[in-house]
Structure to design on (143 residues):
């Protein structure tokens, strides 16, 4: 409250000083009007807190399992798309996302490629390591 009173007094004092220093004319009227608006804004500031609309729901209402499942689907689909773009091979990816300790993270990454080119396995594995995945499993299934 002390801070509010000091800031209100300072703005009003500044307004009076400015209106005394500015010469008469159109500029005086404009600056006086602006200073009055600033004073009103400072004086009405505590009332703003009454109408401050913030969500009151608690974090306990969040379904982290649903979010993790949705994130898992999105992450898996994105990884399939990246592998197709980079290596030109169709794949089926599973990147399960877990929620623990207030964080979402990928615990494993499993990639099944549909190709008889088994030399791609090492390349895809290295690519996943570069992307930051851990516990990676890459295997091929012949079509």
């Amino acid at each position: 409250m002390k801070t509010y009173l000091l800031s209100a007094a300072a703005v009003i004092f500044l307004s009076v000083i400015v209106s005394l220093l500015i010469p008469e004319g159109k500029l005086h009227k404009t600056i006086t009007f602006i200073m009055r608006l600033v004073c009103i804004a400072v004086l009405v500031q505590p009332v703003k807190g009454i109408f401050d609309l913030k969500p009151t729901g608690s974090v306990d209402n969040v379904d982290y399992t649903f979010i993790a499942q949705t994130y898992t689907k999105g992450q898996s689909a994105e990884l399939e798309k990246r592998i197709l773009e980079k290596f030109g091979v169709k794949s089926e990816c599973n990147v399960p996302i877990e929620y623990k300790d207030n964080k979402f993270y990928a615990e494993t990454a499993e990639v099944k490629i549909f190709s008889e080119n088994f030399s791609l396995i090492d390349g895809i594995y290295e690519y996943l390591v570069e992307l930051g995945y851990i516990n990676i499993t890459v295997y091929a299934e012949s079509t």
In short: The chain has a mean pLDDT of 83.
